[in-house]
Structure formats: structure tokens, C-alpha cells
UniProtKB/TrEMBL annotation:
The chain crosses the membrane at residues 31-51, 57-75, 87-104, 110-128, 135-164, 184-203, 210-231, 261-282. This is Uncharacterized protein. It comes from the Bacteria. The lineage of its organism: Bacteria, Bacillati, Actinomycetota, Actinomycetes, Streptosporangiales. Keywords: Membrane, Transmembrane, Transmembrane helix. It comes from Streptosporangium carneum.
């Protein structure tokens, strides 16, 4: 029987025995894990520009991440009779450790690590069974809906800040937006985008096999770059200016600065997120050239290069 898990890790009967599973990982998974381990080791000696919440935990967690990632990459080569469950448990441990480092310890480098840990786990898992696939779809829908909802709230608060004539109200609004930006928004951003990546890697859709999936991926990454590369700083500048104006007893009309940029930035992000939801609903465009080539491959041909 041919494997239904091309380009992924899979269970193969060990030579001479049919009851001993042999868990294999492809080269792309191994390289991803080793890059993650290298990133973790480099992060232990790199000074991050933004202070972390728990500096005493930063280096130990990075070391743990490096050990788990390197172990997952090397162990299948050292031990030829590895079961699937322990390897996937290790993959989940890697994702959890990286998530803790990013969102609890507060190390921004771990956000990059999540883009390595989640795809590695998805590729190791291979094609999901129905129950697991539905659970992942539900998680993606919930995270995406939350992301859109938060974006709507941010646009609404931007309008309030732009139209209010009371400096105290403007300052309070931007302060609330800052809280959302530092708490709920990053979780929704990464949960929606990375669950979408995991869905693509564990289902027939892939990441660049269909135009609508590829466009959604570009939108998700683009909105993340917009949020972390521009909107966060613009929002902080607006909040600081509003607080200074409120403390000085001036009116909200005494400062404009980046208020408009914050508003239009969140509007742009919201429009793109709504477009991504419509792409998921209508699935336009058909297959890409890569998708057509993948379909033309012999069924069950796995890429272990």
C-alpha cells in the first residue's frame, strides 16, 4: 500500500519486523529543526533590544529549545526504531517551549522560532485524520475570527481617538489600544497565521499548491509585518503624544502626528483580513504551477532528498 503522507514524516515497518514502527523524517524537517536549534543557541548570547519580562528564564528556555530541536533532528538517525507518538510529543514540546519563550518570557526572537517549530511539527505529523483535522480547522477559524474582531475594535477605537475633542479620552483610548496591541493582538496574529500554515502542511491544500492559499499566506505575513514593523511603533507614539497633551491641559486638536497613520494602518489590515476570509470561502484561482506538478507525480512518491 502506498503512503498517503508524501513530503512528511511517516511510520514505516522496521526491517524484518512488522510490529515495530520506524519513524522517518524528511530532510526538510531535519534542516528546519537544526536551524531552530542554531537560532536558540545564537539567542543565548545575543542581547535583545526590547527587555524581556523574565530575564532569568530566557537563557534556560533557549537551551531547552535547542536540546529538544536538535534531539528531534538527530534521534531518528541514531535510533532506527522510534515510535511516532514520542516524536510528535517532542514536536509539541518544542512548539510549547517556543511559545512560552515568545509570549510569556517575552523574547521577540522566539516569534521567528515559531515559524520553524510549527511547520516542523506539521510536517512530522503528516496528513491528519478527520478528528484532528477538524480540531485544527476549528482552532484556525476561532483564531482568525478573533483576529478580525480585534481589528474591528482597533479601527473603532482609532475613530474615537480621531474624532474626540477631549484630550483625556483620547489618551485613555490609545492606552487601551496599547494594551490590546501587547496582549490579545499578538496571540491572535500568530495563532491564526500559524494554524493556517499547519493546515496547509497537513492537508491536500499545501501552502503554494493553490492560488487562494498562497495569497492568504502572503496576506497573513504582510499584516504581521505591518503590525510589528509599523503599527506598534505608531501606536506607541500616538499614545505618548496623547498622554503629554492630556497632562498639559491642552485639547486633542493640539496634536495630530501619527493618529491618521494608526487609523489607516488598522483599516488596511482589517480589509486584508476580510479579503483572506473571503478567499477561504470562495477558493478562487485553482492550482498553481507547483500544484499541477505535484498532482502529476506518481501517487505515494515521497520526497526524502
Amino acid at each position: 500500500m502506498t503512503s498517503s503522507l508524501p513530503d512528511t514524516a511517516r511510520d514505516v515497518p522496521a526491517r524484518g519486523r512488522t510490529d515495530a514502527p520506524h519513524f522517518e523524517i524528511t530532510r526538510k524537517v531535519r534542516v528546519t529543526l537544526l536551524i531552530h536549534a542554531a537560532l536558540a543557541l545564537v539567542a543565548t548570547v545575543v542581547t535583545v533590544p526590547i527587555p524581556v519580562r523574565f530575564p532569568q528564564l530566557r537563557v534556560p528556555v533557549w537551551i531547552a529549545i535547542a536540546v529538544v530541536a536538535a534531539g528531534l533532528a538527530v534521534l531518528p538517525e541514531v535510533r532506527r526504531r522510534l515510535a511516532r507518538r514520542p516524536m510528535l510529543t517532542g514536536g509539541w514540546l518544542l512548539v510549547v517551549l517556543t511559545t512560552v519563550q515568545a509570549f510569556v518570557v517575552g523574547d521577540l526572537l522566539a516569534l521567528l522560532g515559531l515559524w520553524l517549530a510549527v511547520p516542523a511539527l506539521a510536517l512530522m505529523a503528516g496528513r491528519l485524520r478527520t478528528r484532528a483535522r477538524k480540531a485544527l480547522v476549528a482552532a484556525h477559524v476561532i483564531a482568525s475570527g478573533g483576529w478580525v474582531g480585534i481589528a474591528i475594535v482597533m479601527v473603532t477605537m482609532s475613530v474615537i481617538a480621531l474624532t474626540s475633542t477631549d484630550a483625556g479620552s483620547v489618551a485613555a483610548t490609545y492606552r487601551l489600544m496599547e494594551i490590546f496591541d501587547l496582549t490579545l493582538l499578538p496571540w491572535a496574529n500568530f495563532a491564526a497565521t500559524l494554524s493556517g500554515v499547519a493546515l496547509g502542511l497537513t492537508t491536500k491544500w499545501g501552502l503554494i499548491r493553490y492560488y487562494w492559499v498562497a495569497i492568504k499566506l502572503v496576506i497573513g505575513i504582510g499584516v504581521l509585518v505591518l503590525a510589528f514593523g509599523f503599527l506598534h511603533d505608531a501606536l506607541e507614539a500616538s499614545a505618548e503624544a496623547a498622554a503629554q497633551v492630556a497632562a498639559g491641559g491642552a485639547t486633542a486638536h493640539d496634536f495630530g502626528l501619527v493618529q491618521g497613520a494608526v487609523f489607516w494602518g488598522f483599516v488596511f489590515g482589517l480589509v486584508n483580513l476580510l479579503a483572506a476570509m473571503l478567499l477561504s470561502l470562495y477558493k478562487p484561482g485553482g492550482k498553481t504551477r507547483r500544484g499541477l506538478r505535484t498532482t502529476a507525480r506518481p501517487r505515494g512518491a515521497a520526497d526524502h532528498r
